[in-house]
Amino acid sequence: MNNRDENIILLRGEPLGEVSTNSSEEEQFQNQILRPILKLQNDLLLSVFKNYIAEQKNNFYNLNRDQKMVFIDNAIQKDTKLRNLYKGLILGLFTIEEYNTFKLLSASLNKRLMSMLQERIKSQLQLLEP
């Protein structure tokens, strides 16, 4: 393992969530790699979304709670530029081996990643307030 990979693994910290031998490869990847990265990048992920709100010149702050949840879902599901930005922020903290695994399982892992990202942002709705 090269120095970059070792540093990334140290930076991310311990796996989050249950990982067992019965877990699927996707679930293991999610709990060992994706969850720690999302936790590490949390402040940046929220900052990106705040900037997205400002760029959209949307009345996000005038929406009720349910409407804000729909706005978050739609933004992450439908805005390709935003999705790609988020994917870059996450994939940039993969080791080479993890990236190769991600490529092989990209269809299911992309869905998991975006779903976890949506839930993470929605669960911290109060931090999006100006």
Q: What is the element layout, followed by pairings?
A:
Blueprint: H1 3-12, H2 25-40, H3 42-56, H4 65-78, H5 80-91, H6 96-104, H7 106-122
One letter per element, helices H and strands E, the order comes to: HHHHHHH
Q: What's the helix count?
A: 7
- Oligomeric composition of the shown chains: single chain
Arithmetic mean of pLDDT: 91
Low-confidence stretches: none
The span between the termini is 43 Å
How would you classify the helix and strand content by structural class? Answer: mainly alpha
Beta fraction: under 5%
Q: Which descriptor suits the 3D outline? A: elongated
- Summarize the biggest pleated sheet: none
Binned, the helix content reads over 70%
Q: What Rg is obtained from the alpha carbons, in whole angstroms? A: 16 Å
Instruction: List how many beta strands DSSP finds.
Output: 0
Structure description:
This protein is an all-alpha fold and 130 residues long. It has helices at residues 3-12, 25-40, 42-56, 65-78, 80-91, 96-104, 106-122. It has 7 helices and no strands. The radius of gyration is 16 Å and the shape is elongated. 72% of the residues lie in helices and 0% in strands. Helix 2 crosses helix 7 and helix 4 (65-78) runs antiparallel to helix 7.
Q: How is this structure best summarized?
A:
The chain is mainly alpha-helical. 72% of the residues lie in helices and 0% in strands.
Descriptors:
130 residues, mainly alpha, 0% strand, elongated
